[in-house]
Amino acid sequence: MKKNKETDKHMQLRRCGFCQKSGHNKSTCQQKLNELETADQTAEALPQQHTQTVRQPLNFFVHHVQYQNHESPHIVNLKEQKSALHQTIEAVAPTETNALYYFHEKQKKSELTQPNTIAFIPQIILTEKPHTVTPPPTATTAKTDFVKNKINTLAEKISKIKNSQTHTVKKISYKIRTVAAPKHLVSISLAVLLLLFIPSHARTYYSNLKSTTNQIANNSTAGFSALHDSTSALISGDLPTAQNSLTSALENFDQAVNTLNTKYSFLQKVISSVPVMNREIKSRQQLITAGQEISLGNTYLLKGLSDIKDTSSTLTENLSVLSNHLNFSIPHYQNALTDLSQVDSDVLPFEYQETFKEFRVLFNLYVKDLENIHKLTTAVQEIFGGKGLRRYLLIFQNPAEIRPTGGFVGSFALIDIKDGNIVKMDIPAGGSYDLQGQLTEYVTPPTPLLLSNKRWEFQDANWFPDFSASAQKMLWFYRHSRNVTADGVIAINASVLNRLLAITGPITAVDRGLVIDKNNALETIQRIVEFGPEKKSNKPKQILSDLAGIFIENFKQMKPQDVLPLLVNLEASLQTKEIQSYFTDENTQKTITDFGWGGTITETKENQDYMLVVNTNIQGQKSDAKIKQKISHQAVVQTDGSILNSVVISREHTGTAGETLYGQTNINYLRVYVPQGSQLIRASGFIWPDEKMFKAPEDWYKKDIFLSQLETETGIDPSSGTHITNEFGKTSFGNWTITEPGQTTDVQFIYKLPFKAWKDDKKSNLDNWAKIFQSQHQASNYQLVVQKQSGINSLFESQIIYPNQWSPAWQNGSDVSVAPNGISVKQTILDTDQIWSLVMKKNEN
What is the pTM of this model? Predict the structure, then answer.
């Protein structure tokens, strides 16, 4: 053994501590032997203690020198994943049902992130799985023991401070212990041994695999590009292009699969033990399998659309064929969605990453549309006479003269349908006014309608913003006019005509020498109705009857490739309330309502904020075609938890005075529906029509029982004349606006909500959200439900403001920006019903 030089040198210079002579020490010094007896033990201990101090750091260095630059690849992977662990925490969002459950009653994945200004991380306790490892101490397990020991050492260090760490650290600790479990030790050892000691030809094999990465990625990308074209062609009905693109997609995916599985199957198994590499390989495999699943789904759907050619031309049978093929295609689409959600887009070439992300979002919507179509099969069979003859009132609404359900009912049709075929259609040439002379009942209309008529009649029946209520009143008027009942009411806004023409292309009325397309249809028809030759003979709607026959013939000759585009446009029209329906069959009506296609007022809970702005044009001609509406909402939470809402509605008339039809003064009865029990504090900006313009009903007219049951007046605001009523489980504030061409009218409602943002008892505020966040902070929930009126797409913006000691913990909804004490909703187009949710926490100072 090599001697320590410093120790040897020190021993050579040793002298007597008393006399300073060399050759002896104090213990043998004769001069002071008797005086230094008590110092002998101290003198002998000094060399031994010094030697130990020198050797200890030397031994520590020798023990670690071999491994100081080595780091387990598993630990490296965990460090890489650490920053992304928060992404696995599922946000809590509102459910997708019409019941509008609170957002904390159901958990699902959310694409929304936590606000940057809030450092509020939910703590979720993970249950760690116990494990014991006692491998035999053989030479072959030496490296395994070392890796296991180092990982366990690191896990123990993390567990010592786990009480002060966040959820992220706890999850890392759990993963590290899992890696150290015995079932993983063999694969860990194999991976480490292969990476350190793999033969040169195996290294070359691995290099070849890495060199083909671009080839595999390019095949996958090309496959998805072709698949995108195939899906787009299916939606648009271009079946030949869909088939060609589908074939190209399958070829590219097959080539990618062969490259991975045939040439490099062995090394894939090895790499699967190394998390860093396994992530990339798994993403590629999921990308390819997703492509194959989508291809199979498209194959079944394409087959279904092609088979329609060989079946009966009835709509119900065609839909039945399509539904049968959807039974096979949808499961493949759902499998593809699962794979796509787990693909890391970074495995694709950079230039394709954004395109892939967009495709993933759009494909998800595409699958949901197909699932909805499939779920509607039973209801569609009922609606289109697949179970016997069905009769409906088909109502045509003109949004240019806005009414609560979408527009003035200028015309209608009575249609009989059986097996998907319209066997009879009656469109009165005089429109809805043809029923005036046949109505046997005399009832007083809602007060605002006295501006146009002292008797309530069919053309004004859609007074209620809840379409099911208006539809029932239409059926009542029709039954008391023609003594005929119907199985339901379908309201179609004029804008749907443009959608149909976009699918069928231009249509020609030969007798009139008229060609209409999606660009000129509405204006052309409106001009003929108002100024055409039939106007003088009280048949202004004859043009609709003529065009309806042409449309029916076109639908009978519909090409197979037009079926899916028709269904997609139908679904879009239902979502935007361009089409609303009511059916007397309870099961069918429930299905339609569940999908949100019934135009009903949403039933909310007692502590949910709600708003619906409803316009009714009375004697304003077609001026709503030139009206632009903006709604500004603000909810201010007071220090005691009470909520004050302010709603400002701005209506701009962009028409020109004197312009035919559209240049008239816009006379509008405006209602705002809010949570029931809300207290009106102030209303301003309103203008009433001249009282002389209102018509007085006859004394002997009856009060309408249906109206009395749905509307209960609770008061009138003395300063503004605003009528306050309870309707459909909501409180309504109603008043008049009059807007001249070129002018803008601004009105405001300020009201107090009937509930508070939080309860007074702090202990009772530890609700589900507070429990989820594992925090003792006082929590507050706020949710705003906004419904749109059919026939008008308003601009909408909102602010939700809390006291300064409150800060956002979670939010959900479109176009939201976060503030220190609340959120704001950026100006957006309100073309569908919307929900915004907010969870706030109180900061204890």
Answer: 0.64
Q: Measured between alpha carbons, how far is 537 from 531 in angstroms, rounded to an integer?
A: 12
Which whole-number Å values give the CA distances from 432 to 416, 428, 440, 552, in the listed order? 18, 7, 15, 22
> What does the buried/exposed string (b/e) look like for 462-484 if buried means 16 or more CB atoms within 10 Å of the residue's CB?
bbbbbbbbbbbbbbbbbeebeee
Q: Where are the domains of the chain?
A: 5-64, 130-198, 212-375, 382-594, 609-842
- Taking alpha carbons only, the member of 525, 342, 313, 526 closest to residue 420 is 313
For residue 767, count CB atoms less than 10 angstroms from its CB and return exposed for 0-12, middle for 13-18, buried for 19 or more.
middle
CATH number assigned to the domain with residue range 609-842, chosen from the 4 options 1.10.150, 2.20.25, 2.60.40, 3.40.50: 2.60.40
From residue 392, alpha-carbon distances to 299, 383, 412, 469, 757 in Å are 37, 9, 10, 16, 46
Q: Does residue 309 surpass a pLDDT of 50?
A: yes
Parallel/antiparallel/unpaired status of strands 443-444 and 421-426: unpaired
pLDDT tier, 31 (very low <50, low <70, confident <90, very high otherwise): low
Structure tokens at 320: 């039945």
Q: How many other C-beta atoms can be found within 10 angstroms of the C-beta atom of residue 25? A: 17
CATH number of 382-594: 3.40.630
**291: enclosing H helix or E strand:** helix 275-307
- Residue 836 CA to residue 103 CA, distance in Å, equals 10
Residue 580 burial (CB count, 10 A): 27
**Distance (Å) of CA 755 to CA 608, 642, 677, 681:** 9, 7, 9, 15
Using CA atoms, how far apart are residues 372 and 596, in angstroms rounded to an integer? 12
Between β-strands 702-703 and 642-653, what pairing exists: parallel, antiparallel or unpaired?
unpaired
pLDDT at 800 over 90: yes
